[in-house]
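Model it.
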Amino acid sequence: MKEGEEDEELFLIDHSVFDRYEVEQPGYRTKLMDKCFETDLSYGKVYTKVCKGEDSLFKGVRAKLREHYEDIVNVFIFLACRDDRACIGLNEFTSWISAISACDKALDMALVDRTFISTNIHDHSFFLNADRTLYRYEFLEIIVRLAKIKYNEGEKERRVKTLPEAIELFLAKQIYPNCRAASGLNFRQQHLYNTRVNELLKKNEPVIKRIWTTRDSIIHYHPKKRFITITECRSYVKAMGLSRLSDSMIGMCYYESMVMIPDNIKNMRQEEMSTYEFLVFMCRITFEHYKASHYHTEKMYIKLEKMLPNWLAPVYAIPEFGFNNEFDYDLKMARKKRKQIRRAANLSSEEEEGFDDMDDSDEEEEVEV
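Modeled.
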C-alpha cells in the first residue's frame, strides 16, 4: 500500500516541494516519455542501419520499443551509475551481457564487442557522446541489434519471423528476469507523495539549503554553478558516515532522483542535479540506508526525520521541525525488554496492564536483557 494513503487526498503535488515532478504525473507523463523516446530514436541508427530504411519494419520496431521504453530506461539507469556520467562502459556492458546469459552460438562475446563498437559510431556531431560508452539512445539501439542477431538471425530452433518478436523475446528471456532496474517514479509515488514527507521537507527547507549554500560545504553552489554533481553527492554521503552505500548505489540514487531528461546529448543536464531533485535524492539515500535494517518497513517520514541530523551534520546545522515519532520497531523492542525485566524479577504479568505477548514477533523474542 502507498505510504500516506490515509491523507492522500490532502496531498497536492503542485503545492508541494515536489511540484517540478508534476510532469511525470498521469496526463503529463505520456507526453514527456514520448518526447524522450523520439529524441533517442532521432540520435540512433535503428532506422538507417538496423532496419535498412524499411519503413514497414521500422514501424513495428518503433512500436515495440515504445511499449517497453520506460522499462528499458530503468535498466539503463541501474547500469549507468558507476562513473561520473550517465553512460555504460564496455567492461560494464560485457559483464552485464554475461550476467543475463545472452551469449550462445549465434551471439558470442566477440560479436557483442563488435556490436558495441557499431552502435557507438554515431551520425550526429555532438561531442558529449564519448567513445567506448553507451548513452541512453545507444542502449536502446544495441538491444535491437542484439535481439536481431540472437532471435531474428540466429539458430533456427530459436529464430522468430520478425524483428519486433525478436525484441520482445530478448527482453522477456534475457533482460527482465536476469537484471535489476531503477524505478524513480515508483519510489516517489509509493514513499514521497504524501503530506508528512512534504511537511517535513518544507519546514526544514531553510536549514536543508545550507547543504549547498554554506561556503565550505562539500557541495559548491554559486551563480556560475547552479547544480549539484554526482561526485559531490558521493562525497557528501561519505561525509555523513554512510560508508556501506557503494558509489554505484549512490550513482543510481542520483540519476533515479532526477526528472526524466528528454535530451541528454546536446547538454549536460543529466549530470546537473537541481536543488529540488536533491531533496528527492536525500529521501532515496535515506530509504537505501534503512533497506537492510530492522527499520525497512517503517514510514518514510520517520526514517527521513531520524536521518535529517546526519544530513545536516556536515554543514553544522540541526533540524528546525520534526514529528518526534519513534520507530515502531524500537517501541516493540522497548516493550519486550520491559517484559523480560519484570519476568526476571518475578513481578506480575504486564498482560494485566494491557500488554499482550501474542503481539510480539519471533524477532522480538531474541532481545536479551
